[in-house]
Amino acid sequence: MFAGFELRTVGVAPGIDLRVRVGGSGPAVVLLHGHPRTHTTWHVVAPRLAAAGRTVICPDLRGYGQSSAPPDDADHTTYCDRSMAADTVALAAALGHERFAVVGHDRGSYVAYRTALDHPERVTRLAVLDSVPVLEALERADARFAEAWWHWFFLGASPHAERVISADPLAWYRPDPQAMGPENHADLLRALQRPGTVHAMVADYRAGLRTDRRHDEEARAAGLLVECPTLVAWSRHDDMEELYGDPARVWESWCRLPVRSAVIDSGHHMAEEAGDQLADVLLDHLRR
Question: In b/e form, how buried is each residue of 8-28, taking b as 16+ CB within 10 angstroms?
């Protein structure tokens, strides 16, 4: 995987080091993975972007993969999207990029749009994959959402979540080596068995229900919008259309400019299931 890329550890905040894969040259694009993946989920997409003239930066998010996983705090700021957005800006700057595009999938998409909202002078383009803003998801939640996305509330609210998952994380997540690819699968297994990773991932969801929601409410009240060109893409065989109709319409009220959209012919983990199609869609967005 990642031929020609360099694997590094970069300090982004006191006590926070991110494992990051960097390759290519040219304008920078940061790829942010979702739950429970690591940066290796981009193993098809990242080389395609690098070959097309981009510097591609693929970190493990704070608490995920092999990045630092400090204890959560009572206010759930340690793992909120604002903290991870600050990590993203610091990481790009440490690698010599004051401005960059950012792409996020699943939980990584929340970090991506928070980066664009909090640091508009840094983000040149945004792509959000398989998501709507946290606040929109929670305000629109109904019985159908609760049944399909029950894990949001178990991870984010149950006092038993960390103990249950840590008892057998492989049984909980059931990662498929054939679907993921052997090296990507092996990297996830190492992460899931690392002390602190499950704690951090649970803390991410707890921040989502509380701190991230509050930050979204504050952004909406202040009229804060994403200022850069934005792509919204979702998986054809996931449930985004069932839940939200056209997800791009949900994003329109959060973006200053018209939103572009794309549908990827895959299930939820689009970077692994349809990596070449996703790379084509992202390159088209980055070139416009």
Answer: bebebeeebbbbbbbbbeeeb
Q: Looking at this protein, which amino acid is placed at residue 111?
A: V
Say what the pLDDT of residue 126 is. Answer: 98
Q: With bands split at pLDDT 50, 70 and 90, how would you rate the model's confidence at 36?
A: very high
SS3 track for the chain: CCCCCEEEEEEEECCEEEEEEEECCCCEEEEECCCCCCHHHHCCHHHHHHHCCCEEEEECCCCCCCCCCCCCCCCCCCCCHHHHHHHHHHHHHHCCCCCEEEEEECHHHHHHHHHHHHCCCCEEEEEEECCCCHHHHHHCCCHHHHHHCHHHHHHHHCCCHHHHHHHCHHHHHCCCHHHHCHHHHHHHHHHHCCCCHHHHHHHHHHHHHHHHHHHHHHHHHCCCCECCCEEEEEECCCCHHHHHCCHHHHHHCCECCCEEEEEECCCCCHHHHCHHHHHHHHHHHHHC
Of 73, 59, 61, 62, which is closest to residue 20 (Cα–Cα)?
A: 59
pLDDT for position 288: 86
A 10 A CB-CB count for 249 gives 13
Q: Flag whether pLDDT at 34 surpasses 90.
A: yes
pLDDT at 195 > cutoff 90: no
Q: What is the mean pLDDT of residues 135-164?
A: 96
Distances 141 to 23, 88, 249, 250 between C-alpha atoms, Å: 39, 29, 17, 14
Q: What is the pTM of this model?
A: 0.97
List active site positions: 106, 268
Return the ∠ at Cα 208 (arms to 176 and 246), rounded to 5°: 75
Main-chain dihedrals φ then ψ at residue 82, nearest 5 degrees: -65, -40
